[in-house]
Design brief:
The protein is mainly beta. It is 0% helix and 44% strand. The chain is globular, with a radius of gyration of 17 Å.
Length: 195
């Protein structure tokens, strides 16, 4: 996988020395999220009135295995729901509905076949929303907690999606000044440690 171009992916095949543009939607932009077992998810960021998350395999990127949709009615989850067992359950996107508009947490539950939208009440006037958008979320391995990254903020938020509340912040080493940049989050299930 290479990069995104509005609603398309660019894929590079280094063995054949070829690249291909793969149109997925008419979204403003896409964000890619790694899974396991050859799977990845794509968040389709439209104009705020609609958000979709699609499930794909690296072996066949154009094929949508499953789709979570918000906007144009009730949230929907369709397709092969088993693929979500290999993908992140949580994503963030800007979402606009009649009652509010802001960054929201999208919770995909393949066992119940549901997509839930959670407003993030802690993301309030304490943040400069024109300057500090929510840029990512990652699950804390082995716990029902999330780490939420905020643009230009060196203190990611620890969030409990079950209780729907902020439970803390994480101070990053060497990042003593607020507004020092974007924090990219990832987690490792295991690794070999020296020592």
């Amino acid at each position: 996988m290479g990069w995104v171009d509005r609603g398309s992916l660019w894929c590079l095949d280094p063995t054949r020395e070829t690249e291909a543009q793969i149109p997925l939607s008419d979204a403003e932009y896409l964000s890619l999220h790694a899974g396991s077992d050859d799977c990845f998810s794509v968040v389709h960021h439209f104009d705020g009135n609609r958000v979709e998350v699609t499930a794909h395999r690296f072996a066949a990127p154009p094929e949508v295995l499953s789709r979570a949709s918000l906007g144009n009615g009730s949230p929907r989850l369709n397709g092969d729901l088993s693929v979500w067992g290999f993908l992140p359950r949580y994503h963030v996107a800007y979402y606009r509905c009649p009652a509010w508009s802001d960054f929201a947490l999208l919770c995909i539950d393949p066992h119940r076949g549901t997509v839930e939208v959670q407003t993030l009440h802690w993301y309030n006037e304490d943040y400069d929303k024109g300057y500090q958008g929510i840029v990512g979320v990652t699950e804390v391995p082995g716990q029902d907690l999330l780490i939420v990254s905020i643009q230009r903020n060196s203190h990611p938020v620890l969030y409990d999606p079950t209780m729907r509340r902020k439970v803390g912040q994480i101070g990053l080493a060497g990042a003593s000044l607020p507004g020092t940049g974007r924090v990219a989050l990832c987690s490792r299930v295991s690794c070999a440690e020296d020592g």
